[in-house]
């Protein structure tokens, strides 16, 4: 009888141990699933975000805000004004004009950035040579293309209703689906391009190239490091950006 009692005790202990292990495995599986859901799976873009990322100029913004960040100049400082200046890329001059009549907020921002020398030394990290879109995007702090999350502004201004941007247009890069996701980056359209809108709309055309567009075309002719969209084969630096 004693032997049978000891056997029952050992079996009961084993069942309790197995239940604890099973519970731990189940809990671990739930935790792993939760982590995956919150990382890999949750990071998959929606159809709208994918379209924005493919057609847009920066990554989608998770939390659009209809306010301008501290330090962003008021649109009134550039309203109705015209600014002319020079953008120097890899030692070559590109004449530019900013239109404060059509895009006062954008003109206020980029004329301010020019006066403060903020963009000097920054990179043109993205070149697109696709059949429908030819652009060179500039103003990133480094080759990663990351934007400054502390400097965002809106609204959108002077966006082409048909999504067609003429050669020489200078437009403002922004995060996807966010009319207040503009920042310190811009892109130069070196040939007529069609850029699809996203949920927020199009991209603010702040001005145009008045001379030296050939400089940008030459950069584009050297190609992209991989594919049709990415880092240009020739690294491009903003030597200076001045306006009057």
TrEMBL record:
PPIase cyclophilin-type domain residues: 93-243
Acyltransferase keyword on record: no
TM annotation in the entry: 20-42
Keyword set, alphabetical order: Isomerase, Membrane, Transmembrane, Transmembrane helix
GO molecular function: peptidyl-prolyl cis-trans isomerase activity
Pfam families documented for this protein: Pro_isomerase
Annotated coiled-coil segments of the chain: none
Alphabetical list of InterPro entries matching this protein: Cyclophilin-like_dom_sf, Cyclophilin-type_PPIase_dom
Enzyme Commission number(s) of this protein: 5.2.1.8
Name of the featured protein: Peptidylprolyl isomerase
